[in-house]
Amino acid sequence: MRIGISCYPTFGGSGVIASELGMGLAERGHKVHFITYAVPGRLNVNLPNIYFHQVTVPDHPLFRYHPYSLALASKIAEVTENEGLELIHAHYAIPHASAALLAKDMLNDRLKVIITMHGTDVTLVGKNTSFMPIVKYTLNKADAISAVSIYLKNEIRCTFDCDRNISVINNFINPQDYNSRNRNEIRSLFACEGEKLLIHVSNFREVKRIEDVIGIFLCVRKRINTKLLLVGEGPDLNKAVQMAGEKGFASDVITLGNRKNVNEIIAASDVLLLPSEKESFGMVALEAMACGIPSIVTNSGGLPEVVDDGVTGYLSPVGDVEGMTNRVIELLSDEEKRQEMGRNGRLRAQERFNIKDAIDQYEELYRQAIMN
Ligand code: GMT
């Protein structure tokens, strides 16, 4: 197939999934064209069958807000004409899927539009009154829709009163990208002998409850010699550093920014913290499982579909800093248990969330959309 993919080219889970999917499809012989404003962080453009088309928005004195969606729609239409795309797979409803529908209209329907809803495009952005009508329209007009968890599928149904068929295709990992080969070497960059390492990876937005990450770390730090790695960038990152600094632990919190080798950094840690208000899926918890690292997560949104409570990590109520602290201390004090949970997680990630199955499911979704 000749496939277009549009996504946010950032380090967030939706960009990671779009990139890994594209590379997996290319490996199976499909021609995959990425259409976005920058090369996605995880995409290897040097692979056969992978192409990149940059969307640019010219500056103009009349533009108070740059019309990226329109430039994207024009680019999708242009690439479809030039490369004979059969379908475009849009990750995140706004603006990717709505722009793809506009391109489809420009091409007199000669393009199928497949949307994968990722989470905040439903739970935050989609619910906003400025966007609700366009997301609803987009869902009604798309040729096929997928959601990354059962939770998200149900949210789409309720939020947009949507009775369309929605396929649940879970996020996935490629097992060969996750190993602990460099664990000791990377660990020694951050922790001294005998020190433990907690890790949090996110875009540091309100929904991630960064104050709980720091609250848990500070309580654990009182009992066990521990450092905290913060990977990613976002508005609440400085708040986190400040909170730790106020308690005199600034030097134990290590900020790493966005990292391409996040897999290796997670694999070098002991426990992942993800105390989010809500996650449609929680890609980083799956990545931690694939690395053999247990996670402490909240039992909200799609997280219970990813983390098996007491088997691959622990689920706690949102805001239960004390409960999550106790779980972390339990794991840091019992290396055998921590490793056993890690092994369970790795196995579950490989068996239940394998890239091969996910690509099979996406290919089937594409075929159905093309046939209809
Ligand atoms: O809005 C975000 O938080 C970023 C967004 C993304 O683009 O990666 O994350 C969402 O999609 C991920 C990939 O499917 C999921 O793993 C995350 O759980 C989801 N974020 C939320 O639901 C908050």
Which descriptors would you attach to this protein?
binds ligand GMT; 372 residues; 45% helix; alpha/beta; single chain; Rossmann fold; 15 helices; 2 domains
**CATH homolog superfamily of the largest domain:** Glycogen Phosphorylase B
Name the overall outline.
globular
What's the CATH first level of the largest domain?
Alpha Beta
Give me the CATH fold name of the largest domain: Rossmann fold
The portion of residues assigned to helices is: 40-55%
Number of strands: 13
Count of separate structural domains: 2
On the 0-100 scale, what is the average pLDDT? 96
Task: Supply the helix-strand structural class.
Answer: alpha/beta
Give the uncertain stretches in residue-range form. none
Number of helices: 15
Report the bound ligands by name, code or SMILES.
ligand GMT
Q: If classified by CATH, what would the architecture of the largest domain be? A: 3-Layer(aba) Sandwich
Beta-strand residue fraction: 15-25%
**Strand order within the widest sheet?**
3-2-1-4-5-6-7
Spatial gap, N to C terminus? 16 Å
Q: If you compute it from the alpha carbons, what radius of gyration comes out, rounded to the nearest whole angstrom? A: 21 Å
- Oligomer state equals single chain
Q: Secondary-structure element order, as H and E? A: EHEEHEHEHHEHEHEHEHEHEHEHEHHH
Major pleated sheet: 7 strands, parallel
